[in-house]
Protein 1
Amino acid sequence: MTAFVPVLWRSALFTLLWWVLAGGRADSWGVGVVAVALATLASLRLLPAAGHRISPIGLLRFTLFFLYQSLRGGLQVAWFALRPNLALHPAFHDVALRLPEGGARVLLANTLNLLPGTLSVELEGDRLCLHVLDASLPAEKEVRAAEARLAHLFRLSL
């Protein structure tokens, strides 16, 4: 029975995503059922279930963190766009990651794309290369905060 839990969770996630994308239209489910099934199969093939349990409190904390950082990142980029005379100093930073390999590390790299002024460039082994808009921004501090939230979400120790 536990082998079906990842299938059920992913199917539910892709079903919700289809429902949102289709605007809740009932006539879209002919294609939607096939799309959900293929997306579930592809996700299980590309990212096999690792057996991590998700912490409900960790999920709430990560969601709030993600929403706050997304808003903050959007505002900061808007500020940069409105003030084109700002002296930015773009740079690349290599950061050693503490999360174990797998989905949590991939989610971290994707989450960092929404943090203010950062873009994940390459994830190789336990190293993440980040592009930052300004070298004076505390990029590593931001990575550590996101890592901590994801570790709590997936009940991992760093």
Protein 2
Amino acid sequence: MEHLFNCLQQRSAGILHHLTCLPSDQGIGCIDGNAKNFLNFLRAGKIKYWQVCPLSPTGYGDSPYQSLSSFAGNPYLIDLNYFVNEGLLSKEDTRPLAELSRDRVDFSKLNELFWPIIFSASENFLKKYKNLDEGFNKFKSSAKWLDPFCNFMALKEYFDKKPWYQWPAEFSSSSDLKKLPSEVIKLANIHKAIQYVFHKQFSDLRSYAQQNGIKLIGDIPIFPGLDSADVWANKQIFLFDDKNRPTQLAGVPPDYFSESGQLWGNPLYNWQVLKEINYKWWLDRLKRNLELYDVIRLDHFRGFYDFWAVPFGSETAKNGSWNAGPGVDFFKVIKKKFPKLECIAENLGELNKGVTDLLKTTGFPGMAVLQFAFSNFPQSTYLPHNQYQNNVMYTGTHDNNTLRGWVNSLGEIDKHNIRRYVKSDDNSLVWALLTEAYKSPCNTAIICTQDILGLDQNARLNTPGTQTNNWTWRMTEDQFFTLGKSAETLRELAEVYDR
């Protein structure tokens, strides 16, 4: 069968580590020297890919998968030392952030402290550089998403952080905007400066990665959040009624894990309208993401074949229905625009034949998660020896426990089966599992930083279906130093298993 795309053809290894999890003096990992030090570690360990979660500004719950924009960068990731070095902030201004927790992100305190600092710095930037910085002017003219996003964020500030659908009618649609209040215009310009600094810093980080032979893998959540600049500025491509209310919301039906299903709350695309405009919004989104990343991970790939639609106002996801997605037509249009696009398809969960056929047609590699491999031992298709080249073997994802935490949670029979498979005792079980990922036939193997460090469930990044303590784990400076000492072992694995 001829595929639309050829992706990740060389045997390689990668590491999944979100930027917010790096050590820093800002209460959250950011694009500072430690981000480049992490790239140095990857190079030393012969790691070819660095995978991150979405880098977009986060909304309620601080999840990178519920973002305020599919195009903008997360201001929390900006290294504030840039403003200090430019004389736009003093070191004393940033000191309160340096006093925040070193091993967790305290989003509540970060939110309270960070925004006044970066707003002040960006105001000073505008006073000094507004019409003098050639790069800033070029960025403003070339980033077509910038004005809608910055107007959205400014209006959100102006209306006390309320979601757009609670704003006065004259502001609830970007296409109906008349004259913006002067305070909103001022706030929008501040957000433009913030996005420019993110752009500068991340572009520099990506260049450094390229110089070191490392490619960045970035995540694209399939659906934007309801309270996002994407939906506010583009309601015509979503399923909305004439009162600016979504008619259906995204989710998944009842299954083994949930009797009532999962109601995600994201608005759904009007794929017919998108097709009529040749999927322009999606092409723009991919173009933007390819400015940031070398490889795209398409979250919830199933939704491009069919998706669970729940009527607006439903309390659970029980009463939804399967609706047809755009299918292969969508990917043929993408092929014309981005013929060399490299993607990983998140194809986890229950899939039907239509989804698997679409995946084969695209040629995208799917995912196999090692933590799923021992629940049906020895018949599990996720076991490494059952894998195939055009697949990506993960030890775990951002939604999984750490390997150590996972093993700790298992019963004795499952632990015994793992020991039999990897030929190891409990002391070296995690490294034996990492080795299995490297040994697998999959062209790409991606492991997690927490697993290299052997950390338990306290280092888990996200637990789906829960509302607290997610996205907060950070690597300490001591752990970063320990991580660096594992580079030689990782290089040895890469050389032995031809990665």
